[in-house]
Records
---
Amino acid sequence: MKSDVKRLAAEMAVIVLMAAMIGIAWNHRLLLEVFRGQGGQTPPAAAAAPSTPAAAATPLPLGLMQVKELFDTGEAVIIDARDRETFRKGHIRGAVSLPVGDSDGLIPPFAERTPREKLLVVYCGGYDCHDSKLLGEKLLGAGFGQVFVYEGGFPEWRDAGHPVAQGDQ
């Protein structure tokens, strides 16, 4: 009887330990952000998206599921920071082309037709591309309060089978 209880306790401990290891592996990015002092900044959903102060130095990152939710609800303007030719070859359906290289001339007209409180999601060519971050910083500097970067960019979106388009629209 006592050996059954000990065996059961040992099995429970193994299950809890394995669950903890899976949780740590699954959430390793979030844990790294917490250790770097950046934790708690990524909103879980559009409804819970915090306002980013206009003076913030960098836009906050969003993951694929968060961007897909914003896409589905239409709560955000999705902005492609890649050059126009790359945009024409393929982009997130409904995205606005705002190439970072031309952004100094394109942000003022964009700002005239877009409310400053609108949630903006900027993407480019994936994790190795920094154009979305640069454009996001410029948009924050232009007074937009809720600017986020989709780090996975177009490649992750396309590979997940989400809606894409070609051409200028």
---
Amino acid sequence: MTSPQLLPPVSPPAGWASWREVMDVALRQAHEAGSMGEVPVGAALLSAEGSLLAQAHNAPLSLNDPTAHAEMLCLRQGASTLGNYRLTGCILAVTLEPCIMCLGALVHARIAGLVIGARDPKAGAVLSRLKGLRLPFLNHQFWVLEGIMAEDCGKLLSSFFLRRRKARQGLLSP
């Protein structure tokens, strides 16, 4: 499924064989987050030319920062690398559909596109809970490509939360 406003490119930027290859970078970051006890979400930011500008994973617990979502950290790294908070032409790949905070940051950063692994039925602000790009007051639009490695991304999250619930019930060690 795509954004109703803009169509995503069929292929990723130069240097990447497929969108799966791009998502795999984000998924490795998600695995790292999970191993640290963080919700396993990862992101990767590409320039329009295909350079990997940044990669990050969720870190709100370890950084004591409620804004330390994978997307936010990736955008910060990318902006620092480019010396500009406007990430025009850049593409963000993320294992889980962004929340409303991250959607706002993506709009302000002026990214060109968003590649989503799994939808977030609880807090997804792009496609699931809120059709965020249809909000009439947004001053920027970007294309959206969803479902890249969705099963892998979804299974990682499901297994993480299952382990966490069992640990809380005393069935597993955390």
